[in-house]
């Protein structure tokens, strides 16, 4: 039983009219993993999340949470889930504490001590008895996370969780989510547009495009696959053509670059000194050589461009 | 379930709007009592007063274009005044119970305020986006909807209770606590004059008014659930209420209209023997209202249960 994934999507499909908004999604998320869900706007990320929490019906297939179907066994499945869907929309006319009390009443076993603990964790202790309408977006986000964690769920679903948080808040949240997953074994499902954020936070990412899952892999493989990095070499603009010819003689690919004097070369780090020497020996003036780490963002664009 | 109702009640009573409505209700109730007191002449000679009243209603009945409702009202009052004189029954002394019976108009205020709150119960959660977080808890949608319905019904009952309590208290200041055995003359279903306990009539009127109040609460709640728009829910419900009041007279002419909720929504018509149509009874009105309440609740439930929540 321990081996059973916390979330299992089984050919989950959402059809509206004749269009498949989400098409045949199948993947698992094991306990203790931070899973990043990426995709451009309108790819169906939020629709998938809504299906996972039973807000909308699944047209075909099923989604299981701890083995319980969200459609057939809603109460049993959903009690393992804490979530923020889209924005952290809370009751503005209630205080933060009243909001938490509200959600605490809806599940069993959340004590006053647990509420205080959660308030402490999200750092809202000083403002928890203020009305939510006086909160900043960041504070609302924290309160949203607090309501999601209140009943210690096995699955935490967060839609754009770093939205509105300041850098310190993002850093804190990132560490907290990682700790939650890696130490307490919670499965964390995060959707985000902030790709750099995902890179630092997630163990695995899935890329969604036009309702289809186009890629799912470990974050390390995802970012570093392909081996060669790009290196940007800046030379004297007048010598650009000469430099290009020299590099072509090394069988390196030069990528087109708009700025005169700049060359983008696909090569490994250990090849840089050789290239440098070649250019210098030919009397070409080199101003700078920079490694360009391919970020998740590049990778993401690459994948989504490929599939178009 | 009790937790869910506690939640919904917390949401109702945490809003400023709710307290403004409750304060307004209490203020108007007290105001109406004071106005009632100012218009009450405490005459020593009940006979002279009854003769004067009888004369006044006879004059009114001579007006040819008098509306049927006003005519029936004048006829009833004339009948009672004459009966009083014939049988030598003095008017009952001024007391808070009789005063409460004259407040039936304030029931409309309770209905309007209940509509305002009911209209926001479901639609408000959609507009604020809070419906999502409410529905992802281990409770069926049926329970969530039911808890909202119960909470707003309790709110309506609270308003009715405030109306009675403050109406009674203010009048008790003017006329004393009142004897619970006070009786007065009323017309029964057959149009015969009978002596009845005033307190019992008060209990009957306010107790049974739950049905019309719930009728409008259910209507506003249903529109709120189906259209997910509070403003429309208030608008449609108030529109029906206003049109409905003018439909009571039309019902006298067209029999089919008696199955619409309008002519059945004013319980005081039965207390004062003024049914829109002679064959209509209290039981009939309550059955009609109940049928509408049931149908609207059923439709709201079906829609709420099935709907994809994507706001």
Walk me through this protein's architecture:
- The complex is a heterodimer of chains A (308) and B (311).
- The two termini of chain A are 40 Å apart.
- Chain A has helices at 45-52, 74-78, 96-105, 112-121, 137-149, 167-184, 195-201, 219-224, 240-249, 272-281, 296-306, and strands at residues 7-16, 19-29, 34-38, 60-65, 68-69, 81-84, 155-159, 187-191, 204-209, 212-218, 229-235, 253-255, 262-267, 286-292.
- Helix content of chain A is 35%, strand content 27%.
- Chain A folds into two domains: 7-224, P-loop containing nucleotide triphosphate hydrolases (Rossmann fold); 229-294, Alpha-Beta Plaits, CATH 3.30.70.120.
- Chain A is α/β, with parallel strands linked by helices and 308 residues long.
- Chain A is elongated.
- Chain A has a six-stranded mixed sheet with strand order 6-7-8-3-9-10, with helices on both faces.
- The relative contact order of chain A is 0.13.
- The mean pLDDT of chain B is 89.
Mean pLDDT figure of chain B: 89
User: How many distinct folded domains of chain B?
Assistant: 1
Shape of chain B: elongated
The proportion of strand residues of chain B reads under 5%
- CA(first)-CA(last) distance of chain A: 40 Å
Tally of alpha and pi helices of chain B: 14
Strand content of chain A: 25-35%
Number of strands of chain A: 14
H/E topology pattern of chain B? HHHHHHHHHEEHHHHH
Largest interface: A-B, 32 and 23 residues
Number of domains of chain A: 2
Radius of gyration of chain A, whole Å = 24 Å
Major sheet characteristics of chain B? 2 strands, antiparallel
CATH superfamily heading of the largest domain in chain A: P-loop containing nucleotide triphosphate hydrolases
What letter string, H or E per element, gives the SSE order of chain A? Answer: EEEHEEHEHHHEHEHEEHEHEEHEH
Distance between the termini of chain B: 25 Å
Low-confidence stretches of chain A: none
């Amino acid at each position: 039983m321990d081996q059973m994934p916390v979330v299992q999507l089984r050919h989950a499909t959402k059809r509206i009219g004749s269009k498949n908004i989400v098409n045949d999604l199948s993947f698992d998320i094991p306990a203790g993993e931070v899973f990043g869900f990426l995709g451009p706007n309108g790819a169906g990320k939020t629709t998938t999340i809504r299906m996972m929490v039973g807000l909308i019906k699944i047209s075909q297939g099923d989604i299981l949470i701890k083995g319980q179907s969200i459609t057939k066994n809603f109460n049993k499945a959903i009690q393992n889930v804490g979530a923020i869907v889209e924005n952290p929309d809370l009751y503005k006319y209630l205080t933060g504490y009243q909001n938490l009390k509200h959600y605490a009443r809806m599940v069993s076993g959340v004590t006053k001590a647990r509420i205080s603990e959660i308030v402490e964790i999200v750092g809202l202790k000083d403002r928890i008895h203020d009305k939510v309408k006086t909160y900043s977006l960041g504070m609302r986000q924290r309160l949203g996370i607090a309501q999601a964690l209140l009943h210690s769920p096995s699955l935490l679903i967060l839609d754009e969780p770093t939205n509105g948080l300041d850098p310190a808040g993002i850093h804190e949240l990132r560490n907290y989510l990682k700790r939650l997953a890696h130490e307490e074994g919670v499965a964390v499902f995060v959707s985000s547009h902030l790709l750099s954020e995902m890179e630092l936070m997630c163990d695995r990412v899935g890329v969604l495009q036009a309702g289809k899952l186009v890629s799912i892999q470990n974050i390390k493989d995802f970012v570093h696959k392909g081996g060669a990095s790009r290196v940007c070499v800046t030379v004297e603009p007048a010598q650009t053509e000469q430099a290009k010819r020299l590099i072509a003689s090394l069988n390196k690919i030069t990528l087109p670059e708009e700025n005169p004097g700049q060359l983008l070369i696909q090569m490994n780090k250990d090849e840089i000194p050789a290239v440098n020497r070649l250019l210098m020996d030919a009397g070409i003036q080199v101003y700078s050589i920079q490694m360009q780490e391919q970020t998740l963002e590049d990778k993401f664009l690459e994948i989504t461009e490929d599939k178009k | 379930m009790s937790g869910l109702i506690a939640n919904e009640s917390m949401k109702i009573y945490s809003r400023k709007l709710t307290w403004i409505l409750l304060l307004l209700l209490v203020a108007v109730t007290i105001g109406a009592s004071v106005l009632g007191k100012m218009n009450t002449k405490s005459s020593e000679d009940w006979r002279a007063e009854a003769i004067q009243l009888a004369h006044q209603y006879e004059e009114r009945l001579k007006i040819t274009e008098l509306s049927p409702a006003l005519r029936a009202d004048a006829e009833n009052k004339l009948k009672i005044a004459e009966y009083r004189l014939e049988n030598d029954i003095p008017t009952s002394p001024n007391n808070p119970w009789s005063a409460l019976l004259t407040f039936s108009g304030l029931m409309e205020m309770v209905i309007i305020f209940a509509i305002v709150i009911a209209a926001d119960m479901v639609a408000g959660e959609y507009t604020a986006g809070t419906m999502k977080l409410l529905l992802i808890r281990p409770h069926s949608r049926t329970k969530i909807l039911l808890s909202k319905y119960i909470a707003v019904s309790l709110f309506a009952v609270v308003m009715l209770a405030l109306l009675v309590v403050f109406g009674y208290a203010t009048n008790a200041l003017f006329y004393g606590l009142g004897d619970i055995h006070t009786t007065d003359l009323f017309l029964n279903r057959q149009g015969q004059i009978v002596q009845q306990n005033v307190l019992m009539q008060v209990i009957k009127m306010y107790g049974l008014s739950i049905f019309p109040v719930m009728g409008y609460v259910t209507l506003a709640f249903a529109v709120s659930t189906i259209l997910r728009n509070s403003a429309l829910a208030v608008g449609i419900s108030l529109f029906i209420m206003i049109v409905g009041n003018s439909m009571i007279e039309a019902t006298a002419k067209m029999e089919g209209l008696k199955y619409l909720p309008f002519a059945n929504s004013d319980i005081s018509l039965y207390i004062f023997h003024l049914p829109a149509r002679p064959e209509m009874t209290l039981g009939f009105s309550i059955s009609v209202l109940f049928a509408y309440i049931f149908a609207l609740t059923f439709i709201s439930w079906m829609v709420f249960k099935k709907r994809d929540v994507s706001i």
